[in-house]
Amino acid sequence: MPDGVPFIEALSRTTHLGIGAHQDDLDFMAFHGILECYKKESLWFGGITCTDGAGSSRSGEFASVSDKEMKDLRREEQRCAASLGEYAFMIQLDYPSSEIRKASGDALINDLRELLIATRPEVVYTHNLADKHGSHIAVALATIKALRSLPSELRPRKVIGCEVWRDLDWMPDEEKIIMDVSGGDQLACKLMECFQSQIAGGKRYDIAIQGRRAANASFFDPYKTDGADQIIFGMDLTPLAHDHTLDIEQFVSGFIDRFHTKVKTALL
Fold first, then answer.
1. Contact, 168 vs 233, CB < 8 A?
2. What integer is the mean pLDDT of 180-208?
3. Which residues touch 133 (CB under 8 Å, ≥6 apart)?
4. b/e for 119-139, b at 16 or more Cβ within 10 A?
5. 176-180 β-sheet, strand order
6. Eight-class DSSP state of 115
7. Is residue 131 in some structural domain?
8. Domain count, the chain
9. pLDDT, tens digit, for every residue of 221-259?
10. Helices (H) and strands (E) in the chain, counts
């Protein structure tokens, strides 16, 4: 709890909740929620990361860092970001990536369920279900399953699957959740600077994330001047959270099929 309030109070004040696979995922993909809550008295962003970060790529000054040392580094980097972003709380569940990718494992689902009951957020941000990172998909699926296990009155009003390892530019525009984060550059840079084990260690997420947001804004509408300078796209996962009869694979494939149809139609 960055501001030192009691644990239960920190959880119960949460209005926006981010659930990500790795340290730094939330600060990149769920920045809309962080920015929306920043310096607000009645809005609070809470964060949950699920893996221990031991499998991070590394080079340069971090090339010889052991898995144990990398776990410790990433844990502290995430705490740094939570403090700078004034999060309601920051929970790091510390699962090995290999464990959360097991289809038969329920431990993560149960942990997320308990935290969702304690926080009762209005909005949940997680990974999009067309991401290309296995751990991201595993966390998104666990989040959906945890949400479906809740009584209907405890489920959030909005669940957003965010861009990380695969962007959502390919989705039909009318189906994208548009998250305008213009004017948040200073805070975004401060958060990104916390994750030096990744940025200085071989992955320039700071440049890539800002570039993607700028590209989303400029290329969103080919017929209008820019109305924003930084946009994050989201996949609306709310129907999956509220209707357990929906098939997850068919739901995601539907976006792809509709995009395919739009491309074909434009060529006729």
1. yes
2. 91
3. 21, 127, 164, 165
4. bbbebbbbbbbbbebebbbbb
5. 89-95, 45-51, 16-20, 123-127, 158-162, 231-236, 176-180
6. H
7. yes
8. 1
9. 999 999 999 999 999 999 999 999 999 999 999 999 999
10. 12, 7
2 lies in some domain: no
Residue 223 lies in a domain: yes
Structure tokens at 115: 């935290």
**CATH number where 47 lies:** 3.40.50.10320
Residue 39 domain boundaries:
7-267
Q: Which pairing describes strands 176-180 and 231-236: parallel, antiparallel, or unpaired?
A: antiparallel
Report if residue 1 sits inside a domain: no
Count of beta carbons in the 10 Å neighbourhood of residue 190 = 14
State how far the alpha carbon of 31 is from the alpha carbons of 1, 110, 239, 255, in Å.
19, 26, 22, 24
Q: Give the span between the Cα atoms of 118 and 47, in whole angstroms.
A: 13
The values of phi and psi at residue 91, to 5°, are -110, 130
